Protein backbone atom coordinates (compact mmCIF):
# COMPACT_ATOMS: atom_id res chain seq x y z
CA UNK A 1 0.00 0.00 0.00
CA UNK A 2 1.03 3.59 -0.65
CA UNK A 3 0.40 4.47 3.00
CA UNK A 4 2.72 1.68 4.19
CA UNK A 5 5.47 2.73 1.78
CA UNK A 6 5.36 6.23 3.27
CA UNK A 7 5.03 5.20 6.92
CA UNK A 8 7.85 2.66 6.75
CA UNK A 9 10.11 4.69 4.48
CA UNK A 10 13.71 4.71 5.84
CA UNK A 11 13.75 8.52 5.96
CA UNK A 12 10.57 8.62 8.06
CA UNK A 13 12.00 5.97 10.39
CA UNK A 14 15.21 7.97 10.71
CA UNK A 15 13.22 11.16 11.43
CA UNK A 16 11.30 9.37 14.18
CA UNK A 17 14.55 8.14 15.74
CA UNK A 18 16.02 11.64 15.40
CA UNK A 19 13.10 13.34 17.15
CA UNK A 20 12.99 10.60 19.78
CA UNK A 21 16.30 11.86 21.18
CA UNK A 22 16.60 14.81 23.54
CA UNK A 23 19.42 16.26 21.43
CA UNK A 24 17.31 16.03 18.27
CA UNK A 25 14.37 17.85 19.84
CA UNK A 26 16.65 20.49 21.38
CA UNK A 27 18.37 21.22 18.06
CA UNK A 28 15.02 21.42 16.25
CA UNK A 29 13.74 23.86 18.87
CA UNK A 30 16.90 25.97 18.50
CA UNK A 31 16.18 26.31 14.79
CA UNK A 32 12.58 27.37 15.54
CA UNK A 33 13.77 29.78 18.26
CA UNK A 34 16.08 31.71 15.92
CA UNK A 35 13.65 31.49 13.02
CA UNK A 36 11.02 33.14 15.26
CA UNK A 37 13.59 35.77 16.25
CA UNK A 38 14.11 36.61 12.59
CA UNK A 39 10.38 36.57 11.77
CA UNK A 40 9.55 38.62 14.87
CA UNK A 41 11.90 41.35 13.69
CA UNK A 42 11.12 41.11 9.97
CA UNK A 43 7.33 41.19 10.32
CA UNK A 44 7.01 42.83 13.77
CA UNK A 45 5.16 39.70 14.86
CA UNK A 46 4.22 39.52 18.54
CA UNK A 47 3.29 35.83 18.12
CA UNK A 48 6.76 35.03 16.76
CA UNK A 49 8.39 36.75 19.74
CA UNK A 50 6.16 34.86 22.17
CA UNK A 51 7.02 31.57 20.47
CA UNK A 52 10.71 32.47 20.59
CA UNK A 53 10.49 32.89 24.37
CA UNK A 54 8.66 29.57 24.76
CA UNK A 55 11.16 27.68 22.59
CA UNK A 56 14.04 29.23 24.55
CA UNK A 57 12.59 28.08 27.88
CA UNK A 58 11.85 24.58 26.58
CA UNK A 59 15.41 24.23 25.31
CA UNK A 60 16.75 25.13 28.74
CA UNK A 61 14.60 22.38 30.26
CA UNK A 62 15.89 19.83 27.75
CA UNK A 63 19.48 20.74 28.60
CA UNK A 64 19.04 20.02 32.31
CA UNK A 65 22.16 18.26 33.70
CA UNK A 66 23.89 18.52 30.30
CA UNK A 67 26.93 20.18 31.94
CA UNK A 68 27.88 16.69 33.16
CA UNK A 69 28.41 15.59 29.54
CA UNK A 70 30.93 18.35 28.94
CA UNK A 71 32.73 17.75 32.24
CA UNK A 72 33.17 14.10 31.26
CA UNK A 73 34.39 15.07 27.77
CA UNK A 74 36.88 17.55 29.25
CA UNK A 75 38.20 14.79 31.54
CA UNK A 76 38.57 12.38 28.60
CA UNK A 77 40.49 14.91 26.52
CA UNK A 78 42.69 15.75 29.51
CA UNK A 79 43.49 12.07 30.15
CA UNK A 80 44.27 11.42 26.47
CA UNK A 81 47.94 12.41 26.71
CA UNK A 82 48.95 10.32 23.69
CA UNK A 83 46.78 12.28 21.28
CA UNK A 84 48.08 13.69 17.99
CA UNK A 85 48.49 17.28 19.17
CA UNK A 86 48.79 19.05 22.53
CA UNK A 87 47.28 22.35 21.31
CA UNK A 88 44.22 20.53 20.04
CA UNK A 89 43.95 18.52 23.25
CA UNK A 90 43.99 21.58 25.48
CA UNK A 91 41.63 23.49 23.19
CA UNK A 92 39.10 20.66 23.57
CA UNK A 93 39.60 20.54 27.36
CA UNK A 94 39.07 24.30 27.72
CA UNK A 95 36.12 24.36 25.32
CA UNK A 96 34.27 21.65 27.22
CA UNK A 97 34.97 23.28 30.61
CA UNK A 98 33.59 26.59 29.35
CA UNK A 99 30.60 24.78 27.82
CA UNK A 100 29.91 23.06 31.15
CA UNK A 101 30.06 26.40 32.98
CA UNK A 102 27.82 28.02 30.35
CA UNK A 103 25.17 25.32 30.66
CA UNK A 104 25.36 25.30 34.47
CA UNK A 105 24.80 29.07 34.65
CA UNK A 106 22.01 28.74 32.11
CA UNK A 107 20.19 26.48 34.57
CA UNK A 108 20.12 29.44 36.95
CA UNK A 109 18.54 31.47 34.15
CA UNK A 110 15.94 28.71 33.75
CA UNK A 111 15.11 28.75 37.46
CA UNK A 112 14.64 32.52 37.25
CA UNK A 113 12.39 32.24 34.17
CA UNK A 114 10.10 29.65 35.78
CA UNK A 115 10.11 31.73 38.99
CA UNK A 116 11.75 29.16 41.25
CA UNK A 117 14.27 31.81 42.30
CA UNK A 118 13.56 35.56 42.48
CA UNK A 119 14.73 38.15 39.99
CA UNK A 120 17.58 40.10 41.59
CA UNK A 121 20.50 42.10 40.19
CA UNK A 122 22.55 38.89 40.51
CA UNK A 123 20.11 36.48 38.85
CA UNK A 124 18.62 38.97 36.40
CA UNK A 125 21.75 40.76 35.16
CA UNK A 126 25.02 39.26 36.38
CA UNK A 127 24.27 35.57 35.77
CA UNK A 128 22.99 36.07 32.17
CA UNK A 129 26.13 38.10 31.40
CA UNK A 130 28.42 35.46 32.95
CA UNK A 131 26.55 32.84 30.92
CA UNK A 132 27.37 34.62 27.69
CA UNK A 133 31.00 35.07 28.75
CA UNK A 134 31.27 31.31 29.28
CA UNK A 135 29.76 30.71 25.83
CA UNK A 136 32.25 33.14 24.33
CA UNK A 137 35.17 31.42 26.10
CA UNK A 138 34.13 28.07 24.68
CA UNK A 139 33.87 29.53 21.19
CA UNK A 140 37.34 31.10 21.39
CA UNK A 141 38.79 27.73 22.43
CA UNK A 142 36.87 26.08 19.59
CA UNK A 143 38.25 28.56 17.05
CA UNK A 144 41.80 27.91 18.25
CA UNK A 145 41.19 24.17 17.89
CA UNK A 146 39.63 24.67 14.45
CA UNK A 147 42.58 26.69 13.18
CA UNK A 148 44.94 24.02 14.49
CA UNK A 149 42.94 21.30 12.74
CA UNK A 150 43.12 23.20 9.45
CA UNK A 151 46.87 23.71 9.86
CA UNK A 152 47.49 20.01 10.58
CA UNK A 153 45.29 18.87 7.68
CA UNK A 154 47.01 21.28 5.29
CA UNK A 155 50.45 20.01 6.32
CA UNK A 156 49.35 16.43 5.61
CA UNK A 157 47.96 17.44 2.22
CA UNK A 158 51.22 19.13 1.22
CA UNK A 159 53.28 16.20 2.52
CA UNK A 160 51.21 13.61 0.62
CA UNK A 161 51.18 15.67 -2.57
CA UNK A 162 54.96 15.95 -2.50
CA UNK A 163 55.50 12.25 -1.71
CA UNK A 164 53.72 10.76 -4.72
CA UNK A 165 50.37 9.49 -5.95
CA UNK A 166 50.05 5.89 -4.79
CA UNK A 167 46.54 4.56 -4.21
CA UNK A 168 47.04 4.47 -0.42
CA UNK A 169 48.26 8.05 -0.45
CA UNK A 170 45.26 9.14 -2.52
CA UNK A 171 42.89 7.74 0.09
CA UNK A 172 44.79 9.56 2.84
CA UNK A 173 44.80 12.72 0.74
CA UNK A 174 41.03 12.56 0.33
CA UNK A 175 40.60 12.01 4.08
CA UNK A 176 42.81 15.05 4.77
CA UNK A 177 40.73 17.20 2.41
CA UNK A 178 37.58 16.07 4.22
CA UNK A 179 39.12 16.87 7.61
CA UNK A 180 40.15 20.33 6.42
CA UNK A 181 36.64 20.98 5.10
CA UNK A 182 35.03 19.87 8.39
CA UNK A 183 37.40 22.10 10.38
CA UNK A 184 36.68 25.09 8.11
CA UNK A 185 32.94 24.47 8.39
CA UNK A 186 33.19 24.32 12.19
CA UNK A 187 35.18 27.56 12.13
CA UNK A 188 32.37 29.31 10.22
CA UNK A 189 29.90 27.82 12.72
CA UNK A 190 31.85 29.15 15.71
CA UNK A 191 32.29 32.61 14.20
CA UNK A 192 28.54 32.87 13.54
CA UNK A 193 27.82 31.86 17.14
CA UNK A 194 30.42 34.40 18.28
CA UNK A 195 28.51 37.05 16.33
CA UNK A 196 25.40 36.14 18.35
CA UNK A 197 27.12 36.18 21.74
CA UNK A 198 28.95 39.46 21.06
CA UNK A 199 25.55 41.00 20.40
CA UNK A 200 24.24 39.47 23.63
CA UNK A 201 27.13 41.07 25.52
CA UNK A 202 26.56 44.44 23.88
CA UNK A 203 29.84 44.64 21.97
CA UNK A 204 27.91 44.59 18.71
CA UNK A 205 24.59 46.28 18.03
CA UNK A 206 23.13 44.28 15.16
CA UNK A 207 19.48 44.00 14.24
CA UNK A 208 17.51 41.04 15.58
CA UNK A 209 16.91 39.87 12.02
CA UNK A 210 20.63 39.41 11.39
CA UNK A 211 21.14 37.65 14.73
CA UNK A 212 18.19 35.39 13.96
CA UNK A 213 19.62 34.42 10.56
CA UNK A 214 23.00 33.64 12.15
CA UNK A 215 21.22 31.40 14.65
CA UNK A 216 19.25 29.69 11.89
CA UNK A 217 22.50 28.95 10.02
CA UNK A 218 24.28 27.46 13.07
CA UNK A 219 21.15 25.51 14.01
CA UNK A 220 21.11 23.95 10.53
CA UNK A 221 24.78 23.01 10.96
CA UNK A 222 23.94 21.28 14.24
CA UNK A 223 20.89 19.51 12.80
CA UNK A 224 22.91 18.30 9.81
CA UNK A 225 25.61 16.76 12.02
CA UNK A 226 23.06 15.15 14.33
CA UNK A 227 21.04 13.80 11.37
CA UNK A 228 24.15 12.15 9.92
CA UNK A 229 24.87 10.53 13.28
CA UNK A 230 21.31 9.19 13.62
CA UNK A 231 20.85 5.57 12.60
From TrEMBL:
Official protein name in the record: Peroxisomal membrane protein PMP27
GO CC, alphabetical: endoplasmic reticulum; peroxisomal importomer complex; peroxisomal membrane
Record key words, sorted: Membrane, Peroxisome, Peroxisome biogenesis
Coiled coil segments of this chain: none
The species this protein was found in: Eremothecium cymbalariae (strain CBS 270.75 / DBVPG 7215 / KCTC 17166 / NRRL Y-17582)
Transmembrane stretches, start-end: none
GO biological process: medium-chain fatty acid transport; peroxisome fission; regulation of peroxisome size
Taxonomic lineage from the root: Eukaryota, Fungi, Dikarya, Ascomycota, Saccharomycotina
Top-level division of the source organism's lineage: Eukaryota
InterPro entries: PEX11
Compartmental location: Peroxisome membrane
KW Membrane (keyword) present: yes
